[in-house]
Amino acid sequence: MENADGTTTKLVTGDAGYVLEDVPHLTDYLPDVPSYPNPLQDNPAYSVVKQYFVDQDDTVTHKIVVHKDSPRGTHFRRAGPRQKVYFQSDEVHACIVTCGGLCPGLNTVIREIVCGLYHMYGVTRVLGIDGGYKGFYSKNTITLTPKVVNDIHKRGGTILGTSRGGHSKSKIVDSIQDRGINQVYIIGGDGTQKGAAVIYEEIRRRGLKVSVAGIPKTIDNDIPVIDKSFGFDTAVEEAQRAINAAHVEAGSIENGIGLVKLMGRFSGFIAMYATLASRDVDCCLIPESPFYLEGKGGLFEFIEKRLKENGHMVIVIAEGAGQELLAESLQSMDAKDASGNKLLQDVGLWISHKIKNHFAMQKKMTINLKYIDPTYMIRAIPSNASDNVYCTLLAQSAVHGAMAGYTGFTVGLVNGRHAYIPFNRINENRNKVVITDRMWARLLSSTNQPSFLDPKDIAKAKREKEPANGLLENGYSENKN
């Protein structure tokens, strides 16, 4: 099936509405590529495992909440080691590249790809590409060994460096070909994975025996299909420190307001989960839920009400919230960064001024507002225990997939099972908070804030929500809210 971006999806259908959205394999365009027994069967670490290998027919269902008469729906190929591999250990020349913004867990993923290749498959040639996609043709490489990466998971950032943009398809594939690289591991967000899909298509067009594996990265948790992105748990945990500081500051002074801006350009998951985890937040503002400042039911009225009740309050705002209000106020331009992402104005600073000016003009109440922006502190820390385990499994899943000859795929957790997902499913839309869902209702119940929606907005949001029996979309795939 051809997708909007010109790529094709391998669809396998079965009984009772079963659909497998498969990922490409080297044998799709190189039918004579030889296979070899998987060396894991001789690995002493795996000698205690009852079943070394994932069954070739194992798949992971996209949607697990169904009705008794529902079709079986969309599935993805289960990740894990296969009985046959399509690379001999001594022929593998792998490379790893990190692109886009920083995120907790990047170094852990790098470490575990290197250690997985070395310790599970006996691969000894692994390069790190310095400085993102541009590093393929403009910078030096770093030789990666288990000794080099031994302690990097304890540090934030990425030892490989990163950058935005640089998707020069022909230059990148020329570099891959010239260096004799045959496995490419690409760690990055939606823009990076789009670039990975283009690189895969060019490699396929040239008929090269090169596996391209993606590991999706976004601190905002806005990548579709997968349960969550790595670094998200760490971000939510670290956000608690900022919220706690705001709560202490606000509670220590008369009519204190602690305002915390968290990441979330288009999706408010960090703000929502940090608010639910904290229980110190009085109001959470996210991009998916419009709000207004003045008039009855507006934010200013709610702030005044909460200050009269409690004497202080904490507001959490995602960086992408209220951008339409800010754009009207500042007449901002639609500027974009090197990755094609819209450059957002600082909504935290803007709303701080708006709140201060409103209460200064009203002269009914003197407020004391403290603004905290922990964005770069959160992005730059090492991953916590939960994310370290998740990063390890993602990295090993990518290594297993590439060794087994799969290519043009990304790895992710789908309903608690690791799966290989076609690039187009990762790139086709953005995961967002559903404001007609129970999780958002739980937040509103926790903070006791208004929804800032009028009845017409609520009715519209409910109409846009997936219908109760909407299990299949476009005849083959599913929504996941």
UniProtKB/TrEMBL annotation:
Localization annotation: Cytoplasm
Major localization class: cytoplasm
Catalytic residues of the enzyme: D220
Sites annotated Important for substrate specificity: G191
Catalytic activity: beta-D-fructose 6-phosphate + ATP = beta-D-fructose 1,6-bisphosphate + ADP + H(+)
Coiled coil regions, renumbered to chain: none
Requisite cofactors: Mg(2+)
UniProt GO cellular component terms: cytoplasm
Binding-site residues, ATP: G101, R164, G165, G189, D190, G191, T192
Similarity comment: Belongs to the phosphofructokinase type A (PFKA) family. PPi-dependent PFK group II subfamily. Atypical ATP-dependent clade 'X' sub-subfamily.
Subunit structure: Homotetramer.
Entry-linked NCBIfam families: PRK06830.1
Name of the molecule in the record: ATP-dependent 6-phosphofructokinase
Species of provenance: Rubroshorea leprosula
Lineage: Eukaryota, Viridiplantae, Streptophyta, Embryophyta, Tracheophyta
